[in-house]
Amino acid sequence: MVSLTVDLISKSNHFKKQRGISFAQYLKTLTHLHFSNKNIEEIGDLSVCGNLSVLYLYDNNITQIRNLDFASNVTHLYMQNNNITHIDNLHNLRKLSNLYLGGNRIAAVEGLEQLHHLKELHLENQRLGPGEKLLFDSRTLLSLAETLCILNINNNNIDDITELSVLKNLQHFSAALNKLQSIEEIEEVLRLWPQLLLLDLRGNPVCKELKYRDRLITACKSLEMFDGRKVSEATRRFLLWKKSRKHLEEKKQVHTLSANDHLLFNRYDTELCP
Question: What's one Pfam family the UniProt record gives for this protein (predicted)?
Answer without folding.
Answer: LRR_8
